[in-house]
Design a protein that fits this description.
Mean pLDDT: 95
Order of helices and strands: EEEEEEEEEEE
Number of strands: 11
Strand content: over 45%
Low-confidence stretches: none
Helix content: under 10%
């Protein structure tokens, strides 16, 4: 079993900051965090920020220069630092990763349970 546990969401005023964390645990041989996604009510899930195994990052235009994705491989954790938050950032945020549970298994996709971020105007 592999679990992804997200934390750090909450209610914040516009202009404020939040830091999301996503930690993987369980039967893990190798882990590759893919990124953070979000889904607002009535909208499709969208990619917010991604990070490669080498640390290269990519951001949605709507969050560039405000959000920063980072990873701590020793802790099996990926972070999303969100600054200058706007009401349109309100959504449920999900982390995504690929896990190989043994040296002989193929990679499988895993998602966290989601953490609510609400930005008030």
């Amino acid at each position: 079993q592999v679990q992804l546990v997200e934390s750090g969401g909450g209610l914040v005023e516009a202009g404020g900051s939040l830091r999301l964390s996503c930690t993987a645990s369980g039967s893990i041989f190798s882990l590759n965090f893919r990124g953070w996604y979000r889904q607002a009510p009535g909208k499709q899930r969208e990619l917010v920020a991604s990070i490669t195994s080498r640390g290269s990052t990519n951001y949605a235009d709507s969050v560039k220069d405000r959000f920063t994705i980072s990873r701590d491989d020793a802790k099996n954790t990926v972070y999303l630092q969100m600054n200058s938050l706007k009401p349109e950032d309100t959504a449920v945020y999900y982390c995504n990763c690929q896990v190989r549970r043994t040296p002989w298994s193929s990679s499988a996709d895993y998602w966290g349970q989601g953490t609510q971020v609400t930005v008030s105007s």
